[in-house]
Amino acid sequence: MTAGAIAGVMEHCIMYPLDSVKTRMQSLAPTAVREGISDTFFRMIRTEGILRPVRGMSAMVVGAGPSHALYFSSYEYVKDNLKNACHTKYHVAVHGVSGCIATLLHDAIMTPAEVVKQRMQMLNSPYKTVMHCIIKVRKTEGFSAFYRSYTTQLTMNVPFQSIHFMVYEFMQKLTNKEGIYNPAAHMLSGAIAGAFAAAVTTPLDVCKTLLNTQQVGATNGLLQAIKKVYRIGGSKAYFRGIQARVWYQMPSTAICWSTYEFFKYLLGVTRLEDSVRITTPVLADADTNKYDQNSTSSSSSSNSEKLALKPRELPAMSSTGLYSSLTFNTMHTQDSSFTRRKDSVILDITHT
């Protein structure tokens, strides 16, 4: 959960200026100027101040931490349980279902934050601060205004996150076959997954922006938003801001996954998995190599020399991951040597 919270805050803070540009480009207001990504960004700075692209960021910081903590922890938990139930290491349906359940928890927290964020990002926004926006929306439109786009958000994010997780896990099988901590593989997989999922779900994102901002009159429900978008801008309006959305999602998902995997590794979860996967083969190879050297080079005193160890029990090493605990105890007898490792080493593994 800690790794997920840090990843969520990092993702939204670093990419927030581009998210502001995307919201402006998706605006259906008659006063909105149709420009590219760079032109929209520099116009915001030139006409509204250098801090305008980061206005409303505090709402995302408050929402991103807990939502992404639930997002990643629930995804890992559901994925592991489904894998055990299906007796398979990789299955596209497992990652899709896990992503759906994670999205339900994530959006329950992030939807109100999205409403406040996008209202702060809009051109000529009447809100001075995040708290001013929250109080005024609550007073004039009621608490339900914060969840007006929740069904649209789920309609968009459930397929988005399902595609995102399925593509990410698939790319991991291609770029990180060992399943170890690999920053380059995590970043590449995250970027490709985010870009693909973002492009597919752009029409729903435009409808969500309309419901959140209420710029062109009162709009209630996804169907009404779909009709209004088409009436105002035609079929092309559904893909407004697709370039900004793709360019936003590529680095943001890359940052999110690489940060999550880094802190997951740093906090010991992946490191424990790596040690279990790698240490035993290395010991076996060292034993085989030493045995071959002794058998083929008997004339060399260094190769035939046996390492005598005093009877002792090494301290137990234990580590606890998210859902499991591993304990190792190693005993060497007095006549132990590298040439007789199999007979002289007792490895006791307890897994609960």
Could you give a short description of this structure?
The chain is 67% helix and 6% strand.
What does this structure look like?
The chain has 352 residues and is mainly α. The protein contains 14 helices and four strands. Strands 1, 2, 3 and 4 form a four-stranded antiparallel β-sheet that branches. About 17% of the residues have low confidence.
Provide the gyration radius in Å: 27 Å
Instruction: Enumerate how many helices there are, as a single number.
Output: 14
Mean pLDDT across every amino acid position: 76
- Kindly state the percentage of residues in helix: 55-70%
Which class do the helix and strand fractions yield?
mainly alpha
**Form type:** globular
How many runs of DSSP E, i.e. beta strands?
4
Main sheet properties: 4 strands, antiparallel
Distance between the termini: 21 Å
List the secondary-structure elements in sequence, H or E.
HHHHHHHHHHHHHEEEHE
Q: Low-confidence parts lasting 5 or more residues at pLDDT below 50?
A: 278-288, 293-328, 330-342
Oligomer: single chain
DSSP strand content: 5-15%
